[in-house]
Amino acid sequence: MAMSATIRIDNSKSGISDGGSVNVSCGQQRSLIGLTRDDLKTALGEVGVPARQLRMRANQLWRWVYNRGVTSFDEMTDVAKELRGLLDEQFSLERPEIVSEQISNDGTRKWLLRLAPDDLGRRQDIETVFIPEADRGTLCISSQVGCTLTCTFCHTGTQRLVRNLTGGEIVSQILLARDRLGEWPHQLAANQQAPASGRYITNVVLMGMGEPLYNFDNVKDAIEIASDGEGLSLSKRRITLSTSGVVPEIVRAGNEIGTMLAISLHATTDEVRNKLVPLNKKYPIAQLLQACRDYPGLSNARRITFEYVMLKGVNNSIADAKRLVQLLKGIPAKVNLIPFNPWPGASFECAEWETIEKFAEIVNRAGYSSPVRTPRGRDIMAACGQLKSASQRLTASERRELVEARAS
Ligand code: SAH
Ligand code: SF4
Predict the structure, then answer these.
(1) Do residue 86 and residue 228 come from a single domain?
(2) Residues 210, 67 share a domain
(3) High-pLDDT (> 90) share of the chain, %
C-alpha cells in the first residue's frame, strides 16, 4: 500500500522553508493581504502615498500580490525603490507558517497552518485541504479557528478555542496553496505538466473549520478578493459557501456575497436535526428551506447543494430518503451524500455502503443528482469534519461541558 507523506517544516530559523516560498518571520507590520481594493488605497494613503497616485499604486500592488504571488516588496520591480522601502517598513505580505504538509496516497494535501499572533499574542492553528480530481481541483478552506457550533458528528465542533479568521487569513490559505502547488500564472506557463484547465485549484469550498456565516464580513471581503478578475480570478460560481443553516445570514449572503451555497441538512425531521445540528432549534428545517427557496439567482445551472452525512441508524432510512425528496421539492438542488468520517471518540458510525446506495437511488430517481462523496485523504485525516489540530482534543466530559455552555 502506498504511504502518505508528511513534511514537517523546520521553522526554527526565520525565513527557512523546504520550498523557499514560506516566510516565517513574525513581524509586527500590518498585513496587506486581505485588504479590499478600497482598504488598500486607504492604507497606502495613511503611510504617505500621495492621493493622486493611490489608485495606480493600489492596482500595481494588487497585481503583484494576487497575480504574481510575490511575498516581498523587493520583487515589485515597477515600484520605485524608495517606496518599496517604505512599504517594507510598514507592511507585510507574510503567509501563515506551515507547521506540516501531508500528502495522502490519493494525492490529497493537507496543510496545518500556524497563524500570526492575535492581540493576546496567541498563535492558533488551522487546516486547509487540496483535493485533486480528474476534472477539477478543490481547495477546502477554513473560516474560523474551531467553531462555536457543536454539531454532534463533527470533530471541529469539539475544539476548545474559537476565533474568527481575518479576511487576510482566509485569503492567505489560497495564496499558500498556490505557492505550494506552483500555481501562479508565470509558474504554470513554464510548467509542461500543468493541468489542461490551466489551474490546479479550479474550485474553492468554505467547508473547512468554522461556520462561515458567523464570520460574515471577513468571509465577504475574502470572497471579494478571491473573485477579483485582476487577481486570483476565481469565479463566484466556483466558490461554494457551506453553512449549517444560519437563516438570516443566508438571506444576506445571497444579496451581498453571491457565491454558490451548500446547506448542511443532514436530517429530514426537526427532531433528528435538533440532535445532529443543534442550531436547528433556532432555525428549524422549514425556515431553512424557505431561505433556500428565496436565495437569489437559482436555476438548474445554479443549484444549491444539500449535504447529508450518512449516519448508521440515525438518518439513513428509506423513509428519510423519501422525506428528503419531498422537502427539496421546488428547489433547484443537488444532494451530496457524505459517508460519515469517524474520529476518535465519536458516537456515530457510518451507514452501510448498501444503505447509502439505496438512499442515493431514491434521491436520484426523484431527479436530484446525488453523488456519494468518496472519502478522500482519509489516511491523513483530511476528510470533511475531521479538520482540527490534534493538540486541541477535548476529553468526553470537557466536550459535554462545552456543548452545554454553548447551548446556553
Ligand atoms: N460549518 C459549515 C462548513 C464546515 S463543515 C457547515 O457545517 O456547513 C463542512 C461539511 O462537513 C458540513 O456539511 C459538515 O456537516 C460536514 N461534516 C462535519 N463532520 C463530518 C464528519 N465527521 N463526517 C462527514 N461529514 C462531516
Ligand atoms: Fe461547525 Fe460545521 Fe462542524 Fe457544525 S459541522 S460544528 S457548523 S464546522
Answers:
(1) no
(2) no
(3) 75
Is residue 322 scored above 80 in pLDDT?
A: yes
- Ligand 1 centroid to 207 CA: how many Å? 7
Query: pLDDT category, 122, cuts 50, 70, 90?
Result: confident
The preferred substitution site among 242, 288, 305, 347 for testing ligand 1, maximizing ligand atoms within 8 Å of CB, is 242
Is 50 in the same domain as 146?
no
Q: For residue 191, is it within any domain?
A: yes
Residue 139 belongs to a domain with what CATH number?
Answer: 3.20.20.70
236/404 Cα distance (integer angstroms): 37
Residue pLDDT, tens place only, 264-301: 999 999 999 999 999 999 999 999 999 999 999 999 99
- Based on the fold, state whether residues 124 and 47 are members of the same structural domain: no
For residues 90 and 170, give the distance between their C-alpha atoms in angstroms, rounded to a whole number.
21
Q: What's the number of domains the chain is made of?
A: 2
Dihedrals phi, psi of 87, to nearest 5 degrees:
-60, -40
Q: Is-catalytic flag, 127? A: yes
Whether residues 56 and 151 fall in one domain: no
Residues contacting 38, CB < 8 A, separation 6+: none
Nearest Cα neighbor of 261 from 253, 271, 252, 269 is 253
Question: Each residue of 349-394: pLDDT tens digit?
Answer: 999 999 999 999 999 999 999 888 777 776 676 655 555 554 444 5
pLDDT-wise least confident of 169-178, 314-323, 373-382: 373-382
Give a yes or no: residue 24 inside a domain: no
Q: 127, 183, 211, 307: which is the annotated catalytic residue? A: 127
Residues 158 and 306 in one domain: yes
- Concerning whether 101 is annotated as a catalytic residue, the answer is no
pTM of the complete model? 0.89
Q: How far is the CA of 298 from the centre of ligand 1 (A)?
A: 23
Structural domain harbouring 239: 97-380
Q: Is 212 in the pocket of ligand 2 (CB under 6 A)?
A: no
Q: Quick one: cell of 2? A: 502506498
Note the helical H segments in 294-375.
318-328, 353-365
Q: Which amino acid is at 144?
A: Q
